[in-house]
Amino acid sequence: MSKSGRDGEDRDVITSRQNPLVKRAREVRDGRDRDSIFVEGLRLCEEAARAGLSIESALFTKSLSDVERGSHLLRELRDAGARLHAVAEGVFESIADTKSPQGVLLLARRPRADLEEFERQLAATSATAPLVVVLHGVGNPSNAGAMLRVAEAAGTQAVVSTRHTVDLFSPKSLRGSMGSAFRLPLWAGAELADVLAWCAARGIKTVSTSAGAGVPHTEFDWTQPSAVVVGAEGGGLAPTEVGATDASIKIPMRAPVESLNVATALAVVLYEAARQRGF
Fold first, then answer.
1. Is the pTM higher than 0.70?
2. Ordered alpha helix ranges (H), the chain
3. Which is deepest, 46, 66, 104, 221, by most CB within 10 Å?
4. Are 142 and 173 within 8 A, CB to CB?
């Protein structure tokens, strides 16, 4: 290790790829340590700090601390109690999950996404007619992140992901959500049957998307409590899963197009719901 001259920061610059913290960062990045999450990039780290995540460590390069926005973030993280660790450029590149690293990443405690915490956060929204998104079998982390982002942008109150869906706190999912994963109430790892029963018990109408449905998405009443259930990329929901929901809608498309990217399809549906709700 070499020394860093900035007061208030860890004065040892990490220069070894075998450093214990560096090795742990890779474990978190690769999903081998699921107690923590890996947050990379200036904007996403700013969002994490603003959302009040329990940040354990911040790893950064000198290039970050040399710019005002970067040094401001480091001060904010230090004030929040995070340990700051300067890292050599080459070492940082060995940890980063992006092709063009911005010189900062965080290791933070994984936010709770269990049913109890989900219900507590949802109740705090005071939504009288909640709009919920249910992701079932979504396997692409970038798609999942984009769906969280559009859900928040369109005014959705909460998101549920089944155990067949990718980790919403994986590095790629977090980058796709750009902070929405830190703010939305999330229930992760649920069974679809349990989600449908939970909605039924609360008067929330479950709505699946299916190319074979007879009702266009613009003709459904989205002002009532609703949960949009979307399936995996390519295959979508199975016929039995569509049949298990209260209603099914379709997005009209001109031939020969038969389907949309799942994140795009969700955006179309949610913005129609937002329009009807006066958003």
1. yes
2. 20-29, 42-50, 62-65, 68-79, 89-95, 115-124, 141-153, 171-177, 180-183, 192-201, 239-244, 262-276
3. 104
4. yes
